[in-house]
Amino acid sequence: MELLYEDKHLCLAVKPVNVLSEDHPTQRCMPALLRQHYQERKQHDYIATVHRLDKPVGGVMLFSRSSAVTGKLTGLIARHEVEKEYLAILRGKPQEDEATLTDLLFHDATHNKSFVVSRERRGVREARLHYRVLGYHAQENLTLVKVRLHTGRTHQIRVQFSHRKLPLLGDIRYGSKAPCPPALWSHHLAFVHPMTKKRVDVQALPPMEYPWTLFARELGAK
After folding, report:
1. Which run of H or of E encompasses 39?
2. Is the entire prediction scored with pTM above 0.85?
């Protein structure tokens, strides 16, 4: 368990790829792994998930360690007061090196898939993100981007880029055919601690394996 920050109120940990964000009775999930971690250290083991990453997506996640703090953290998330930055590898090259993307998204809960739509109607919500190109691998036609979310819609990053014919590498649900997990990583979280009022700011790099190794220099990996 890679912990980036912890105190009696909350913790920030790195979720591995293909581990669930929320409690599950049979599958590997972050709350159970964190409880085990704290039980082994004979510490209180209350853990609550206050936001989520899709199962195939890894990276930094925030968890509550106190029932008195859970509501405060979910409030920060709901008000978009937690800064979230992701790393993603796209198939293709964006027309602009830096831009803000704004779309209307509809999430089909039955099929767990989101779509860009042209007009507002019931269930449609605005999605907005900002991206910046960090590197381009011409031989494989892949682009590394850093993405900052301004809204938190289901599959937002995946569907907004796919809509522009720039699917995330490995994201079969949204147009990629590469046999690897979606190349999306929760890289950076920052917020004002609801109890101490101090700024908490953490980041983590993806594991240095394909396709991230193609951009090791841009990521500053050692």
Report:
1. helix 30-40
2. yes
